[in-house]
Amino acid sequence: MSIADFLTDLFNPDLAFLPKALAIAVMSSIVCGVVGCYVVLRGMAFIGDAVAHAVFPGIAVAFVLQGSLVLGGAVAGVVTALLIAVFSQNRRVKEDSIIGVFLVGAFALGIVIISQAPGYAGSLQQFLFGSITGIPDRDLYVVGGAGLVILGLVLALHKEFVAVCLDREMSRSMGLPVFWLDIALYVLVTLAVVISLQTIGNILVLALLITPAAAARLLTDRLGVMMLLAPVLGGTSALVGLYLSWSYDTPVGGTIVLVATIGFLVAWLFAPRHGLLTRRWRRPPTQGPTDDSRAPAFAPEPGSSPAVG
Amino acid sequence: MRALEVDGLDVDLGGRPVLRDVRLHLDRGELVGLLGPNGAGKTTLLRAVLALIRTRGGRVLVEGKPARPGRSGIGYVPQRHEFSWDFPISVEQAVMSGRTGRIGLLRRPGVADWRAVGDALDRVQLTDLRRRPAGELSGGQRQRVLVARALALAPSILLLDEPFTGLDMPTQELLGDLFVSLAQEGRAVLMTTHDLIAAVDSCTRLVLLNGRIVADGRPADLQDADLWTRTFGVSATSPLLKLVRAA
Questions:
Q1: Is the ipTM of this complex over 0.85?
Q2: Confidence class for position A304, pLDDT limits 50, 70, 90
Q3: What's the CATH class of domain A3-283?
Q4: Which residues of A74-101 are buried (b: 16+ CB within 10 A; e: fewer)?
Q5: Bridge-partner residues for B173, per DSSP?
Q6: d(CA A78, CA A89)
Q7: Do A295 and B138 touch (CB under 8 A)?
Q8: Domain range annotation of chain A
């Protein structure tokens, strides 16, 4: 299908679900891209995975009760994030084990709950793998509003999140509320996951958090640039993925994630400074001292300002 | 008034006594080396001074007031591995992160903050590298980034945790000189280290710690081999003692 055909379909009133799905996929990818930068930089991909799975029982309950899936998922995700944060304070069992316990436990709970609903098999597949049909108009506003709130909170707490990522001990000594900042970050990850579930599905939502942010990290050494690049990569993956999915009748979540994965691989190979192939092409192997980073730069170099007390 | 006064400090960790009846004081202008074997409680003592852990008894006074996180003028320089060096951040941003608590929630760094960061970078002579990604620096440069981050708060007390570990001799010497001059400018500097030579060479006073304070005095006054064997639990023929006598 050509891009022109895709545009025609987008504006075809009989296919009204298509622009809605596109809007939600792009919005949630942008939000996940931004939040995912913290997830990638703090090495908390496993927590992201846990939260993604933990929203499942909430969605199942909402489904059984005919309530809002987004709201149900958010509540369950936040509760699990809190449980993980509280249980991790006990250092006898390591945090990753705690996460493992709650991740699987929550998912199991979801499966048991949803099995009580009649005709659950079809809905189960929709939760797990995402779908572009059947999105109520209301979700468009919920996702848009929640996305703005998440981005606003990221902007407000960015400085503190960075300090805690860099050095927890130092952050404590500065009097930052490290525990509550952790909780805030978990909640933001949860909300980003929940608004993305609809189109991407429960299994693959982790990719929206991790893949664009990881690719952005390969492309830059500056945090500000990374946090702009990741949502651009994520949003583009959603757009291209939905187009391909519509053209070739492939599952939407899987296609979006594959596009993002290809983007990551391209960044891995061709990133300007650290790409595998870029490095090989640019720098022929040199002889002699290459380890200039160890050179004692302590002596004041010409033009540097003198020490002041 | 003393810059730092620790009096009768008891600390338990996990129900196990780690520090008992620790008495220690620091004046401005002093560079004090805190020596002891692994598990002696050196880092625990620093964390107690920072009020990061609950103490069982005793008190810690900073400039005459009880220590509280974020409230007292202490600059903390943790061990280098505590910092995420793979984080995409420039040297000056890393130093600015030390002022996060002081800047406060929902505020951005202002002119005074950037000036403090600039002064701190000047002081450790990293101004030329301020835009460099922190992860590209050498070990000695990284240590100076952490010192600058602490200095950005203009503290009267500096706590340095193992600043020499994993650095070669020339780098250690340069850092040692920096710490000496930071103290001479009127700060109280307390430094834990395993590096006996550097400590004897640059410190005005040495404190030997092993759960308790074993000795506290000028390097020249700590020639008694018994103090060192008691602190480190080494035999009377240990090379450590030769080092002490030679120093």
A1: yes
A2: very low
A3: mainly alpha
A4: bbbbbbbbebbbeebeeeeeebeebbee
A5: none
A6: 17
A7: yes
A8: 3-283
pLDDT of residue A283: 61
Cβ-Cβ contacts under 8 Å between A and B: the total is 120
Cβ atoms within 10 Å of B236's Cβ, excluding its own: 9
Residues of chain B with pLDDT below 50 are: none
Residues of A in contact with B89 (CB under 8 A): 162, 166, 223
Residue A294 above 60 pLDDT?
no
**pLDDT at residue A298, as a whole number:** 44
Joined tokens for residue B114: 């950037």
| Alpha helices (runs of H) in B57-184, residue ranges in sequence order | 91-96, 100-103, 111-123, 139-151, 169-184
Q: What is the model's pLDDT at position A145?
A: 94
CA-based nearest residue in chain B for residue A92: B14
Residue with tokens 């572009």: A132
Please give the pLDDT value at position A285. 52
End-to-end CA distance of chain A, in Å?
69
Separation of CA B2 from chain center: 17
Residues of B with CB below 8 A from A170's CB?
76, 78, 82-83, 97-98, 149
Chain B nearest C-alpha distance from A234 (Å): 20
Which numeric CATH code is attached to B4-73+155-246? Answer: 3.40.50.300
**B82 → closest Cβ in A165, A167, A304:** A167
- Give the start-to-end residue ranges of the domains of chain B: 4-73+155-246, 87-154
